[in-house]
Q: What sequence folds into this?
């Protein structure tokens, strides 16, 4: 069932007033990675709103950029977040494109890409665009919370958990070439003037600090998580254990940075001028959970190392 009709488009330019007159109520537009020529600007944002339309954010560096894995996902999410913040939308969901017919062999890399995006945005803000398999597998593996399915590569089957469906591509409408979409749920990540954060609430210094802290905590946590503790034969590696345990100080730094980030978000929330502070706090809570898991793993590895070095017979 369609809740609302809209369009998505990249490089084309449309007449927003004419689009609204066709009965469309939202426009899905790009931020972050990829060519600047396809990105949403502040001027276009204002024209879309003036026409009575809402906006949904997309991100795509290239059709197969999700094959870049975890690091590419984190990089693209940082670029998308920077652009969204500049536009006044720092906490909206963002749909990341998987613009090809994904195979089971490719999926683990794409899932890692979406997890990389979640390290930056928080899991609750990561969306995925793709065919039937992409959205189904993303839902199954809990690597996305928002689902934008295209009829391409879907073989006539719609995933029931979709938020948006793209059902016809390359349509001439309102002076440009667009893809036709329909929302299937009341909340599909849309952004309207009444829900828009006020850009002046956060000072440039606060924005810079917030971005720096997010980059630090996600980067450090990812660094700890990637240290190998087994050799190629699957045996515990003492060198790997030493390196992993040596990250305790890093974990403490991450937790300190996360606490500072929490304090900033709480200050913004208590000021009454940041209506979207709740998603930020939720993302921080998720980060704390991840850090707690890493710290627990560190404790377990300390025990394994002690046992490995204990000369007592039978140890």
A:
């Amino acid at each position: 069932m369609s809740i609302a009709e809209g369009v998505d488009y990249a490089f084309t330019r449309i007449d927003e007033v004419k689009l609204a007159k066709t009965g469309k109520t939202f426009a899905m537009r790009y931020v972050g990675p990829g060519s600047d020529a396809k990105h949403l600007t502040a001027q276009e944002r204002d024209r879309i709103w003036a026409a009575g339309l809402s906006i949904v954010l997309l991100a795509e560096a290239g059709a197969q950029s999700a094959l870049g894995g975890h690091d590419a996902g984190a990089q693209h999410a940082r670029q998308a977040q920077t652009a969204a913040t500049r536009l006044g939308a720092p906490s909206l969901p963002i749909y990341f494109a998987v613009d090809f017919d994904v195979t089971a062999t490719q999926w683990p890399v794409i899932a890692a890409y979406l997890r990389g995006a979640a390290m930056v945005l928080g899991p609750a803000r990561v969306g995925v665009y793709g065919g039937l398999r992409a959205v189904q597998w993303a839902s199954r593996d809990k690597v996305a919370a928002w689902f934008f399915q295209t009829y391409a590569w879907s073989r006539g089957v719609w995933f029931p958990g979709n938020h948006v469906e793209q059902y016809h591509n390359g349509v001439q409408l309102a002076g440009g070439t667009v893809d036709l979409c329909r929302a299937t749920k009341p909340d599909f990540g849309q952004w309207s003037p009444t829900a828009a954060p006020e850009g002046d609430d956060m000072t440039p210094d606060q924005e810079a600090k917030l971005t720096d802290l997010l980059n630090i905590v996600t980067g450090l946590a990812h660094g700890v998580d990637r240290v190998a503790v087994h050799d190629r034969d699957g045996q515990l590696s003492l060198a790997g254990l030493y390196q992993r345990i040596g990250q305790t100080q890093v974990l403490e730094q991450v937790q300190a940075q996360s606490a500072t980030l929490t304090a900033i978000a709480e200050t913004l929330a208590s000021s009454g001028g940041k209506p979207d502070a709740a998603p930020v706090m939720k993302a921080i809570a998720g980060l704390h959970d991840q850090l707690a898991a890493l710290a627990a793993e560190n404790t377990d590895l300390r025990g394994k190392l002690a046992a490995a070095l204990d000369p007592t017979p039978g140890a």
